[in-house]
Automatic annotation (TrEMBL):
Molecular function terms, GO-annotated: hydrolase activity
The name this protein goes by in its record: Glycosyl hydrolase family 20, domain 2
UniProt keyword Oxidoreductase present: no
Gene3D superfamilies: Chitobiase/beta-hexosaminidase domain 2-like
Organism: Pricia antarctica
UniProt KW keywords: Hydrolase
GO biological process: carbohydrate metabolic process
PROSITE patterns according to UniProt: PROKAR_LIPOPROTEIN (PS51257)
Transmembrane segments: none
Keyword Hydrolase attached: yes
């Protein structure tokens, strides 16, 4: 793993022509490299150049830009050198040159009067986006189904892959229960595929196009499935895995019929052979393996799936998700013995091209929490996967986002801290993405006249901060400020700083709540799953019982048991509430006078900052109310109850501000966690009744 560095040489070359505002700079690009990624990079540079400031012409150019390959730099690294009017973009491979041209584009776009020589190399070689597909989907519902048409459109994927390349993500991982019948009609089991020949040709064309577009952008592609699932047609034809007929994504007992194992091996083999631009495959030992021990699950994998990889005409890369359950159930659990057993398999598995990657969910399904590793899927982890240092595999953390679907987010310091604390020698990267949200069709933006074509466009800073910092955590904030300023001239610094402040809110709330699987918390809506009752408001009484996942925070019961005193420099609930109040109030003040008239893009950016700020103050005041209420319960002193009511009244006022801000710009929308609420549409206004009822309940305690 190469050490990331970012060097800005102090000697700059002036662009002498910039003083003449009427004259456009002339650029000449010279490239003789026959590399598809380099060609893509140059085409992107050409097409996205500001033609009011630059012209491409080989006659007496102001700048001559040339390309070179130097493998000694390392894959994806680049060097921009400056000499007189010559700029040389050297890359360790085609992707390195692409990132170099992207850097040049940024420098030119910022109106620099100097061009800086730059050297960069990747901190992590594995920088992946997790993208769940809407067919054979993990979970069901309108919020997933409505993306089907968009996700079949190669125009969407061209745009999504462009975004990935721009932000330096280099792995696209595509997830669903059973992808294979959408890619091949196997010779041995044609009955597993329900598509006509014409339909199948369309699917094949789609996949070939997608994998080729990704490869041209220096992006690897992986198909990752859950087990044991088959196509509905195969289930019906052979009377097996009947849960697959209706896309049941979670079953207490998986079907281990030998024919399924053979069908899986055939499917894996033919997919590898048919799609040469597909980089690799990945597996999940769940959610259809109930009733099997961890050893039986691993044996099933080796006899079926891995056998298919062995039979293929080429080796591919491989992602092995660690077991989600240590027992026979399909729920989450961990154990040292299962980790050691899995480690023995990983140390000896030799079917993959290059090292295997294993995936571990950082803090279960809620990675937007704290850089402190409290747990993975199922619970706490031993050091079995990295002690001793593995040779046959590396580990990538999964940052699952089940908390921020609607509002914009960007918090660079959190990402930098995460990398600093968790970028160990055995870690080669990160996955980032959601299980219950697909960033394809933008059905969330309600107002017209925005520039957002797709869902990921709304969350542009989320992807930019994660992608750029996983490549180089020393990337300065100015890069993100400039990105804001290019979209909203004059507002870049203010928007960046305000968004960074309020983007702490979901991190703090989710850390405090210490949730587990997906629907136990949806931070953005301040709701979580209750049984019975569906997704409900996170209550004051629950808040009292919570012990935050990060030990630097004190819970309420612990705080009061210690006489309302701080312990060993840890943050008390009152200190936490005061801190949130302070930075959220500052963010509100900073954006208060932003003129959003006639610019709906800017309106959304500012409104989301305001929404996060009011949600943060709601949490802060409710936290104070919870402390005071617990003091009342312990002392029966009604002064504490009156204080609790005052705090909850303030909180309720801030929730109403959230409703006032969001109602004009967001219509009630389908969200996958709301499948528990009879598929009711989500909006903060729908939760407000619960907010008011809680205040009414607390006031009744005073009577």
């Amino acid at each position: 793993m190469k050490k990331c560095f970012f060097t800005c040489v102090s000697t700059f070359l002036l662009l002498v022509s910039c003083s003449d505002s009427e004259k456009r700079l002339t650029l000449d690009i010279q490239n003789s490299l026959q590399n598809s990624t380099v060609k893509y990079a140059i085409n992107e540079f050409r097409t996205k150049l500001d033609t009011t400031k630059f012209v491409l012409n080989s006659t007496e150019p102001d700048w001559v830009i040339s390309t070179e390959l130097d493998s000694s730099l390392g894959d994806e690294a680049f060097d921009i050198s400056v000499s007189n009017n010559k700029l040389v973009v050297t890359g360790g491979n085609g992707a390195g040159i692409m990132y170099g041209f992207s850097n040049l584009k940024e420098q030119f776009a910022n109106g620099n009067t100097v061009i800086e020589p730059v050297q960069e190399s990747p901190r992590f070689e594995f920088r992946a986006l997790k993208f769940n597909l809407p067919w054979s989907s993990y979970r069901n519902g309108e919020a997933l189904d409505l993306h089907r048409e968009t996700c079949r459109d190669t125009v969407f994927w061209r745009s999504f892959l462009d975004m990935m390349a721009e932000n330096r993500f280099n792995k696209l991982t595509l997830w669903n229960l059973h992808p294979f019948n959408y890619l091949v009609k196997t010779k041995k089991y044609p009955e597993a595929n329900g598509f006509s020949d014409t339909e199948m040709k369309e699917w094949e064309s789609f996949w070939h196009s997608l994998f080729k577009m990704a490869k041209d952008r220096g992006i690897e592609t992986y198909l990752i499935n859950w087990n044991i699932f088959v196509s509905p047609e195969f289930a019906k034809a052979h009377n097996v895995a009947k849960y697959s007929i209706d896309n049941e994504y979670f079953t207490e007992k998986g079907d281990t019929s030998p024919i399924i194992k053979d069908y899986m091996a055939e499917s894996v083999k033919e997919v590898i052979d048919k799609y040469p631009n597909l980089t690799g495959l990945g597996i999940t030992l769940g959610e259809g393996m109930g009733g099997m021990t961890a050893e039986e699950r691993e044996e099933w994998l080796l006899d079926g799936y891995i056998q298919g990889m062995r039979s293929a005409s080429r080796k591919v890369k491989f992602i092995h998700r660690v077991p989600l359950s240590a027992g026979k159930g399909s729920g989450g659990s961990t154990s040292a013995s299962v980790e050691q057993m899995t480690r023995r398999t990983l140390d000896t598995l030799s079917i993959a091209k290059g090292p295997i990657n294993i995936e571990l969910k950082f803090n279960w399904s809620h990675g937007l929490t704290t850089p402190y590793l409290a747990k993975v899927h199922g619970g706490e982890l031993t050091d079995a996967y990295w002690n001793p240092m593995p040779e046959n595999y590396r580990l990538a953390w999964m940052i699952r986002n089940e908390d921020v679907f609607v509002l914009r987010w960007g918090q660079p310091d959190f990402i930098r801290d995460h990398i600093k604390e968790n970028g160990h020698p055995y870690v080669n990267g990160y996955f980032v993405g959601s299980e219950t949200y697909i960033p394809a069709k933008d059905y969330i933006t309600s107002l017209p006249n925005t520039s957002y074509r797709y869902a990921f466009d709304r969350q542009w800073m989320f992807y930019k901060t994660w992608g750029r910092l996983l490549y180089n955590p020393k990337t300065p904030d100015q890069v993100f400020i400039d990105a804001f300023d290019s979209r909203f001239p004059g507002y870049g610094k203010k928007l960046f700083e305000s968004q960074s402040l309020v983007s702490q809110v979901p991190l703090i709330v989710a850390t405090y709540w210490d949730a587990t699987w997906d629907h136990t918390l949806y931070t953005e809506g301040f709701i979580g799953l209750t049984h019975p009752g569906g997704m409900k408001l996170l209550s004051l009484e629950q808040m009292i019982e919570k012990q935050p996942m990060d030990p630097k925070f004190m819970g309420i019961e612990e705080f009061l048991a210690n006489g309302s005193k701080q312990i060993d420099g840890r943050t008390t609930p009152i200190q936490l509430a005061d801190s949130i109040n302070s930075f959220c109030s500052k963010a509100l003040e900073d954006v208060e006078h932003t003129d959003t008239a006639n610019n709906n893009d800017l309106l959304y950016e500012v409104s989301d900052i305001q929404t996060w700020a009011h949600l943060g103050i709601y949490f802060a005041e409710k936290l104070k109310a919870a402390v005071a209420y617990q003091q009342y319960l312990e002392s029966e002193n009604k002064d504490f109850l009156e204080q609790s009511i005052k705090n909850l009244e303030k909180a309720t006022q801030h929730w109403h501000k959230v409703v006032e801000i969001t109602s004009p710009i967001y219509d009630p929308m389908p969200l996958q966690p709301y499948e528990h609420n009879d598929n009711e549409l989500f909006h903060w206004s729908k939760v407000e009744e619960e907010v008011q009822q809680e205040l009414k309940w607390l006031k009744n305690e005073l009577k």
